[in-house]
Each structure stands twice: as structure tokens, then as C-alpha cells.
Amino acid sequence: MPNQKILYITTEMYPYQEDTNMAAVVNKMALKMHQEGNDVRVFMPRFGQISERKFQLHEVIRLSGMNIIINDLDQPLIIKVASLPGERLQVYFIDNEEYFKRKQYYFDDEGNPFEDNDERAIFFARGVIETIKKLNWVPDVIHLNGWMSSFVPIYLKTYYESDTYFKDAKIILSLYNEKDADLDKKIDDKLQFDNISGLKALDNPTIKSFVIESMNYVDAVVKGDEFLDEDLDKAFNETATQKSEYLDIDSINQLY
After folding, report:
1. Given this model, what pLDDT does residue 104 score?
2. Which of 6, 67, 127, 177 has the fewest CB atoms found within 10 Å of its own CB?
3. How far is the C-alpha of 225 from the C-alpha of 176, rounded, in Å?
4. Alpha carbons 83 and 90: distance in angstroms, whole number
């Protein structure tokens, strides 16, 4: 079914990240849908490891310059864009000096999770939502990949609930086996600042608990890895949300 507007929100994508299943799957899904005549956009964080020179990223001035308030602090939102090498497929990068300049992803060189991982996820989710609105481009399908993207549906169904911009978009969540870690215990206060409360994930805020929480806010859940770890598999089996077992890339459009 061509001519759909498909938004991929991801934390990884080949060739910006290599050697992970998620990065490869997102690349293949986006390319397949693009080549079949759909209007595809990809949004991801501009982690410090992604070379702006190598991949020819450039700032989009008309989309940058917004401030997003996180925990009562104004954080400037910088939007960069590149075309997937060899393809006319646009990839947008959410950037901010405070959150995404560091070379590591979620853990420091000693293997400790960054204390601001929660704020980075909130900033990423809100940055994507605000930028899509500024683009004046309304997706038919939003496909989420990677734990940071799980904050998007939570925000859409709470903080942005009265905003009709995304009301007709269907949201799909892919589940992957990602390294779990605790999130800042004060995430409760930060979400309450945006009038978000009552989430079960706040009882024990972790990367995985927010992914599991987000299953309640999407239209469909699909296995991104063929075999999920015990906790994710249990949550997948128990969710009342429409779900699909692992799909190969040739079958992904059936989901849409």
C-alpha cells in the first residue's frame, strides 16, 4: 500500500550505528517502504559518535531554535538532517549540546548509566513531536524502535492528548533486547512538571519498565528481535494491545 506517510522514530539506524540488529532492521524497513513509494522520514538522536562530516549532516535553521523545558530548565533543540547515503531518504537528527554531544550512548566508560538518561529520553520524545508539527507533515504510521522512542506515545497520549495533530496516526512499537538500567528516581518530578503521573513504570523507573509501560499507549506491538528476554516476552504475551510475532522485512508492510 504505497503513498503512506511513515515516520520511523529510532535510537539506532545503519550506517550511523553498525553491528546491531535494531540498526539493520530500521535501515531495511525504512528503505523498503521508501522504495515502494511511501513518504518516509526517520528521526533519531545525534549521538556524539555520529560523524557530521562523514554523513554530511547539516543544521535545519527553520526547524532549530526552539527551547524545550526539561525539569524547569530551557534546553535548546537543534535539528540536523542528512540523506541516507545513496538514497533520497531524509534522516532527521535531534541534537543538544547537553544531552547528545558525548561519545557514549547510555553508559560511561566504566559501564555506569548516565544520570540524565531520563532527561535525554524526554527531550528526544518532545523534540521529535514538536519538530514533526513544525514540518507540517502528518504521519499515517509512527513506528517506534529503541527505548528512548517509547517516551513518544506516553507523551502523545498524556501531555499532547488535547492536540489533534496526531489523532489519526497509528503507532507501532518494536521490542528489542536492550541493556537495562535504572533511570533517575526524580523522573517522577520531571514528568509531573509536564502533568504526567500515575505511570506504573514510576514504581521502579528503568529503561525496560518504560518500554513495557509504552505498550499500553500504542496500537500494535511487534517483536523486533525474534527472541525476547524473559521480562519483555512476558509483557508481550500479557499485553492487551494488538501484537505480532517477529516479522521479516518483506512482511512488514502487512503490519502497516
Report:
1. 94
2. 67
3. 5
4. 5
Q: Does residue 1 have a pLDDT over 60?
A: no
In terms of residues, how long is the chain?
Answer: 256
Cβ atoms of 57 and 81 within 8 Å: the answer is: yes
**Nearest-angstrom CA–CA distance, 154 and 216:** 9
Nearest CA to 12 out of 98, 117, 106 is that of 106
Q: Quick one: cell of 4? A: 503512506
Query: pTM of this prediction?
Result: 0.96
